[in-house]
Amino acid sequence: MAMPDPSALEDEVLAIQSIYPGYLEQSSGTESTYKLKVHAVELYLNFPDAYPAIPPKVSSVTGIARERIEQHLHAYSGEEILFSLISMLSDEKDDEEEEQAMVEIPPTAQALKWTIGEPVHDRKSTMLGRAIQIHNKEELMAALEDIKNDKHLQKASHPQIWACRYRHDKIDGPERIIAEHDDDGETGAGPRLAFLLEVTKATNVLVVVTRWFGGVLLGDVRFKHISTAARDALDKGGFLT
């Protein structure tokens, strides 16, 4: 369980406001209550001084059963909660829309299924990793285009630092491994992600790390954070053996 950290909530709020502009705002008249609005769901969370060791309390909620929110808070007790809560509410909305669209949209047009890791915070900068299975150049380009069109990433300093590794079967010869990467302006970050994929022998995967720069130079430790964010997404997606 995480120990109480007075700066944890502040750092988490700054990260959420960078990744999801307009989703979270401080309630007027109090420093410990925040309003979270995700699609049709709106709730007020009161954060204790001991957060994240003690989860926030739900003071009001509309658009979803209170029990659903409280179950989630209980499941993630002792951890930073906002990112996972937003992800849960967004996933439920996506599931509803997918069910409605299943009979209308061909399978090739369905939304891509990314595995998203936990964000890494340091001095107002945030790194967020995600991973997806790919098998060829066409799937790689489709996934990168999906990232490019994600409105939540448009304000990021470096939206898509990425590396991929996939098998290419040749009809007239043995298979070979295709490996590519891109820094997206964060010089040296792409090769580090490529090295991570190589040493872990992760294949048929694209890993992308998005960085929101908080105004404080982090030095070389930023590469450690980028690798940590990438590894977490790979692990959650089952790409590490």
Automatic annotation (TrEMBL):
<keyword id="KW-0346">Stress response</keyword>
<keyword id="KW-0810">Translation regulation</keyword>
<dbReference type="GO" id="GO:0005737">
    <property type="term" value="C:cytoplasm"/>
</dbReference>
<feature type="domain" description="RWD">
    <location>
        <begin position="11"/>
        <end position="116"/>
    </location>
</feature>
<keyword id="KW-0963">Cytoplasm</keyword>
<dbReference type="Pfam" id="PF05773">
    <property type="entry name" value="RWD"/>
</dbReference>
<dbReference type="GO" id="GO:0140469">
    <property type="term" value="P:GCN2-mediated signaling"/>
</dbReference>
<keyword id="KW-0678">Repressor</keyword>
<dbReference type="InterPro" id="IPR006575">
    <property type="entry name" value="RWD_dom"/>
</dbReference>
<dbReference type="InterPro" id="IPR001498">
    <property type="entry name" value="Impact_N"/>
</dbReference>
<protein>
    <submittedName>
        <fullName>Ribosomal protein S5 domain 2-type protein</fullName>
    </submittedName>
</protein>
<dbReference type="GO" id="GO:0005840">
    <property type="term" value="C:ribosome"/>
</dbReference>
<dbReference type="InterPro" id="IPR036956">
    <property type="entry name" value="Impact_N_sf"/>
</dbReference>
<comment type="similarity">
    <text>Belongs to the IMPACT family.</text>
</comment>
<dbReference type="InterPro" id="IPR023582">
    <property type="entry name" value="Impact"/>
</dbReference>
<dbReference type="InterPro" id="IPR020568">
    <property type="entry name" value="Ribosomal_Su5_D2-typ_SF"/>
</dbReference>
<dbReference type="Pfam" id="PF01205">
    <property type="entry name" value="Impact_N"/>
</dbReference>
<dbReference type="InterPro" id="IPR016135">
    <property type="entry name" value="UBQ-conjugating_enzyme/RWD"/>
</dbReference>
<dbReference type="GO" id="GO:0006446">
    <property type="term" value="P:regulation of translational initiation"/>
</dbReference>
<keyword id="KW-0687">Ribonucleoprotein</keyword>
<keyword id="KW-0689">Ribosomal protein</keyword>
